[in-house]
């Protein structure tokens, strides 16, 4: 279709020499162009994560998110040499020792790395007029009496979306509360809105909370923790499970969600949660091995003895073979 400013004659169309911004083909064409260039520079695309590249001797690793990138290397010279080649091909700007990447603030202190998003939290609190609210110590409270009056005027979907972005990046401590709120985006009530506002109030007092990674920790070990409630959803009676995986003392992966299967007892709910955790652990082990050629040890922490016995012995009993 002809762009504005051209006179259309007899159904004339344009033949493009390259993709224009906004076309549906543009993202894949950009990705192909970038990947081809990186391969010319001796960087190999990982199989486990197609947005991560490294050279043969692991002296340079590059992570790409659309058109933003983060490069780490054995020395500044290696990184700068690569960036100079990149600058010849594309119009770029770069920063040595970046303080922010994709809205996540990076802070190096002695032997520790901190990841946080205080600026984003300030922006979200102002947007939803919660920047002057009084802070609370927890993001949610159990067993509260809810107001079931429907409310269609409050921007509930937008507020949950903003919180989801935060909980998926640097704030595992609000993940459960945000997951509970996200189930009500279609028909929120006054009680649901109060729950979201409580999360905002919690963030008001914890803006500077950060994930901390320590260089002195064992860099060849993952600590995984998983847990589940039992049939806590009063509508579906499905259980909610979750896990968190730590590396060098800091969280690198976490999740909480309602289980797809209906568990018939607590041990079964815990086993399903452990299964989801191990899937993520396996991915991280494969990713780390491809990136560094080293194998991670894993400690899986479960607080249910029946579940531990089922994992050790297999689900062969009369009451557990259906799992």
TrEMBL record:
Name by which UniProt lists this protein: Retrovirus-related Pol polyprotein from transposon TNT 1-94
Q: Start and end of every Reverse transcriptase Ty1/copia-type domain?
A: 7-140
GO BP term, pick one: DNA biosynthetic process
A Pfam family annotated for this chain is RVT_2
């Amino acid at each position: 279709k002809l762009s504005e400013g051209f006179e259309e004659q007899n159904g004339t169309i344009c033949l493009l020499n390259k993709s224009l911004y906004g076309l549906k083909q543009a993202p894949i064409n950009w990705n192909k162009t970038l990947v081809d260039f990186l391969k010319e520079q001796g960087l190999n695309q990982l199989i486990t994560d197609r947005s991560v590249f490294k050279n043969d001797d692991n002296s340079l690793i590059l992570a790409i998110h659309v058109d933003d990138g983060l490069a780490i290397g054995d020395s500044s010279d290696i990184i700068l040499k690569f960036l100079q080649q990149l600058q010849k091909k594309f119009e770029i700007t770069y920063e040595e020792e970046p303080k922010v990447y994709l809205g996540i603030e990076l802070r190096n202190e002695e032997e520790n790395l901190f990841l946080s998003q205080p600026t984003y939290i300030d922006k979200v609190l102002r947007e939803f007029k919660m920047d002057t609210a009084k802070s609370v110590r927890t993001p949610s409270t159990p067993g509260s009496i809810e107001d079931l009056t429907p409310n269609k005027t409050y921007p509930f979907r937008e507020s949950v979306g903003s919180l989801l972005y935060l909980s998926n990046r640097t704030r595992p401590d609000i993940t459960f509360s945000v997951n509970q709120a996200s189930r009500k985006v279609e028909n929120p009530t006054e009680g649901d809105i109060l729950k979201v506002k409580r999360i905002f109030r919690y963030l008001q007092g914890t803006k500077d909370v950060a994930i901390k990674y320590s260089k002195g920790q064992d860099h060849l070990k993952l600590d995984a923790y998983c847990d589940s409630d039992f049939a806590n959803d009063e509508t579906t009676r499905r259980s909610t499970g979750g896990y968190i995986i730590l590396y060098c003392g800091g969280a690198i992966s976490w999740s909480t969600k309602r289980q797809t299967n209906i568990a018939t007892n607590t041990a079964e709910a815990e086993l399903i949660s452990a299964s989801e955790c191990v899937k993520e652990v396996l991915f991280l082990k494969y990713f780390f091995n491809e990136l560094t050629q080293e194998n991670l040890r894993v400690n899986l922490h479960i607080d249910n003895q029946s579940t531990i016995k089922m994992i050790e012995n297999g689900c062969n009993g009369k009451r557990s073979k259906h799992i």
